[in-house]
């Protein structure tokens, strides 16, 4: 075991897969010589050389186009889109091309590629560099969507994504880059499409994703001290969505709260709530409640960004209130 | 009209044997007759959605393809039926795809604008303007990385030169020295609008080449041998590590942009002038002038009519895709589920 930061786990996951498979290559802006603007790819150029770890111009369409074309022609590329907000300038490649081409071709081609991005708030970058856009990706058929919440998951889910033969988008919670955890030595390989129950409690289920997971856990501890025992599920994967695990946790507790970093409308929690109401109505002990960022652009100021995001305090108070029903 | 093709990159084509020349003719005739049949089937409401015909531009796909090798990659636009034909895809499955039949090239799931034949290196027809330029770079990168010697050829229209992806793709291909040939088919119109009225330069691709450190290469896109010669030099350059080439081939679309467009916005004089430059009858005359027997060319015409008729019968005989196909091949394991 060793203490590893969330940021270091990104490079470790990529390196683990590049050592194993020569067809894995990595490209992005400032990722090679500079080691990434968030320092998530430090050491990759030194270990794997400039043929496999490549700096690109500020050309997101060119980056994702090259990624898609290379995947079609036998490589397993990993691309970095520096801030997930920048998907907006290359969304054609994501929403129209790599996600649909296999289906349209009825299976003639496949796209074993990974796109990784710094996602979400916490660093006071303002509205164009702080969005959680994982729900945009979730809305497009043909994309797998992963949001690791800790260093071990980051390594294991990166490995699973690289080994998967479909386009996988990994959203790194950039507010968590400095978080540390004990990580086992040796290879770590996880599975896509698996949520994880990280706390058991009989009174309610809290489903959380990415940077909201540790907040949900802290809220659960506070709620426990007030007599409310929560099951906490780390959703981890939006597509495939692990309905089995989520439904099992919810049906046992009869109550669901979601904690979402995305703005309110069409967040992943809305989909989850609709599923549990449609398929598990008989278990409902109270209205499912979504705890989200308001439907607003994110402001930059410390206090306003904090106010916008679901905080431990807001999670606790919302659940306390919700449990009165 | 003058062409500024660099003779260094446009070698003489006297290396083409008579058989090669006759094959160029055959491929152009196949493309022409195929597209005419598509149009007929459209009028019969058998081809659905929309379709973009290549009539008038056949010399470009034909000449370029003749310069490519087996295993090379092709990327093309939604006006791409002919580009598959010249790479060897049979007519029947293409036509069946347009009819939405189960024996279509993609089981009826793609349609006219999204033809792909990976078995022949055609890694797709792209219906969003410009996308294929950046994607083609990736295939070229894979070939470069694996040192396979494969060349990628990417076709696009004049309209694509005004979208961002064109510029990102050019810069990227040059800085990575990719084995790729970009072929701009300048048919003078971006959809319904004259390209010159919406472009800052006269030659939408060639005049931009210098911005990416590339030579401007303009070729008569209605002269199949000129296209072949220019493409052969570019393909050779790419295959031997010389990096990308940007070719602008001047041509004209005989019909409108798509089936919804009768093309009435084009001055009659202009249309007539270009019809006089129709690549097929002109090449036919040239071949006859070189001593090729007219009856041999007539035979090709007749054989092609037969081929198109057979393909039509094959396409019409296909059943509708099974309902189950709705649910297949989103993911690489053949499934389409979003939940576990």
Automatic annotation (TrEMBL), chain A:
Cofactors demanded by this protein: thiamine diphosphate
Please give the Gene Ontology molecular function terms for this protein.
magnesium ion binding; oxidoreductase activity
Family matches, as InterPro entries: THDP-binding (IPR029061), Transketo_C/PFOR_II (IPR009014), Transketolase-like_Pyr-bd (IPR005475), Transketolase_C (IPR033248)
> Which Pfam families does the record cross-reference, listed alphabetically?
Transket_pyr, Transketolase_C
For this UniProt record, the keywords arranged alphabetically read as follows:
Oxidoreductase, Pyruvate, Thiamine pyrophosphate
Q: Give the highest taxon in the source lineage.
A: Bacteria
| Keyword field contains Oxidoreductase | yes
Which residue range or ranges hold the Transketolase-like pyrimidine-binding domain?
Answer: 4-179
Under the heading PANTHER family, the entry gives:
PYRUVATE DEHYDROGENASE E1 COMPONENT BETA SUBUNIT, PYRUVATE DEHYDROGENASE E1 COMPONENT SUBUNIT BETA
Q: Which NCBIfam families match?
A: PRK09212.1
Q: Write down what this protein is called.
A: Pyruvate dehydrogenase E1 component beta subunit
- Which organism does this record belong to? Sinosporangium album
Question: Taxonomically, what lineage is the organism?
Answer: Bacteria, Bacillati, Actinomycetota, Actinomycetes, Streptosporangiales
TrEMBL record, chain B:
Task: Give one GO term, molecular function aspect.
Answer: pyruvate dehydrogenase (acetyl-transferring) activity
* Cofactor list: thiamine diphosphate
Q: Does the keyword Transport apply?
A: no
Superkingdom, natural source? Bacteria
Q: Which UniProt keywords apply?
A: Oxidoreductase, Pyruvate, Thiamine pyrophosphate
The Dehydrogenase E1 component domain is annotated at 27-318
Q: Name one GO biological process term.
A: pyruvate decarboxylation to acetyl-CoA
Which Pfam family, an example, fits this chain? E1_dh
SUPFAM superfamilies given in the database record: Thiamin diphosphate-binding fold (THDP-binding)
The answer to whether the entry has keyword Oxidoreductase is yes
Indicate what this protein is called per its UniProt record. Pyruvate dehydrogenase E1 component alpha subunit
- This protein's species is Sinosporangium album
């Amino acid at each position: 075991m060793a203490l590893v930061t969330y940021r270091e786990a990104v490079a470790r996951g990529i390196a683990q897969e590049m050592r194993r498979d020569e067809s894995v290559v990595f490209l992005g802006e400032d990722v090679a010589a500079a080691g990434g603007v968030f320092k998530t790819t430090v050491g990759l150029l030194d270990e794997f050389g400039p043929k496999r770890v490549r700096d690109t111009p500020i050309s997101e369409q060119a980056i994702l186009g090259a990624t898609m074309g290379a995947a079609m022609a036998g490589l397993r590329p990993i691309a970095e889109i520096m801030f997930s907000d920048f998907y907006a300038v290359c969304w054609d490649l994501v929403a129209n091309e790599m996600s649909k081409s296999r289906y349209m071709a009825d299976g003639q081609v496949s796209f074993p590629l990974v796109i990784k991005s710094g996602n979400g708030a916490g660093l006071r970058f303002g509205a164009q560099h702080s969005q959680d856009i994982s729900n945009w990706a979730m809305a497009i058929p043909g994309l797998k969507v992963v949001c690791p919440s800790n260093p071990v998951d980051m390594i294991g889910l990166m490995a699973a994504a690289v080994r998967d033969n479909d386009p996988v988008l990994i959203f790194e919670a950039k507010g968590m880059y400095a978080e540390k955890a004990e990580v086992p030595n040796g290879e770590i390989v996880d599975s896509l499409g698996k949520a994880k129950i990280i706390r058991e409690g009989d009174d309610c289920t809290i489903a959380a994703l990415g940077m909201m997971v540790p907040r949900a856990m802290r809220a659960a501890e506070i709620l426990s001290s007030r007599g409310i025992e929560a099951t906490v599920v780390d959703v981890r994967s939006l597509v495939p969505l692990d309905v089995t695990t989520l439904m099992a946790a919810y049906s046992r507790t009869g109550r669901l709260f979601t904690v979402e970093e995305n703005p309110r409308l069409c967040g992943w929690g809305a989909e989850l709530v609709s599923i549990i109401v449609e398929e598990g109505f008989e278990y409902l002990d109270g209205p499912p409640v979504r705890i989200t960022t308001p439907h607003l652009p994110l402001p930059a100021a410390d206090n306003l960004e904090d106010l916008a995001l679901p905080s431990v305090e807001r999670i606790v108070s919302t659940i306390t209130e919700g449990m009165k029903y | 009209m003058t062409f500024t093709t660099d003779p260094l990159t446009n070698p003489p084509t006297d290396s083409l044997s008579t058989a090669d020349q006759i094959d160029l003719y055959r491929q152009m005739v196949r493309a022409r007759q195929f597209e005419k049949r598509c149009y007929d089937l459209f009028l019969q409401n058998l081809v659905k959605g929309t379709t973009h015909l290549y009539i008038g531009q056949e010399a470009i796909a034909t000449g370029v393809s003749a310069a490519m090798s087996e295993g090379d990659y092709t990327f093309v636009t939604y006006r791409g039926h002919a580009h598959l034909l010249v790479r060897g895809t049979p007519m029947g499955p293409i036509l069946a795809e347009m009819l939405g039949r189960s024996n279509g090239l993609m089981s009826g799931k793609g349609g006219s604008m999204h033809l792909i034949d990976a078995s022949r290196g055609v890694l797709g027809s792209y219906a969003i303007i410009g996308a294929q330029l950046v994607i083609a770079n990736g295939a070229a990168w894979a070939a470069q990385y694996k040192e396979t010697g494969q060349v990628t050829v990417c076709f696009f229209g004049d309209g694509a030169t005004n979208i961002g992806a064109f510029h990102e793709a050019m810069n990227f291909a040059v800085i990575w020295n990719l084995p790729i040939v970009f072929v701009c088919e300048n048919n003078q119109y971006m959809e319904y609008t004259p390209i010159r009225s919406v472009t800052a330069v006269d030659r939408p691709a060639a005049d931009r080449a210098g911005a990416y450190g590339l030579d401007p290469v303009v070729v008569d896109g209605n002269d199949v041998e000129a296209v072949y010669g220019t493409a052969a030099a570019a393909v050779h350059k790419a295959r031997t590590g010389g990096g990308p080439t940007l070719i602008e081939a001047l041509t004209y679309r005989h019909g409108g942009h798509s089936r919804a467009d009768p093309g009435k916005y084009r001055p009659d004089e202009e249309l007539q002038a270009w019809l006089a430059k129709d690549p097929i009858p002109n090449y036919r005359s040239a071949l006859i002038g070189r001593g090729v027997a007219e009856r041999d060319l007539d035979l090709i015409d007749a054989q092609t009519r037969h081929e198109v008729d057979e393909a039509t019968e094959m396409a019409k005989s296909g059943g509708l895709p099974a309902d189950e196909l709705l649910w297949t091949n989103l993911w690489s394991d053949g499934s389409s589920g979003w939940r576990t």
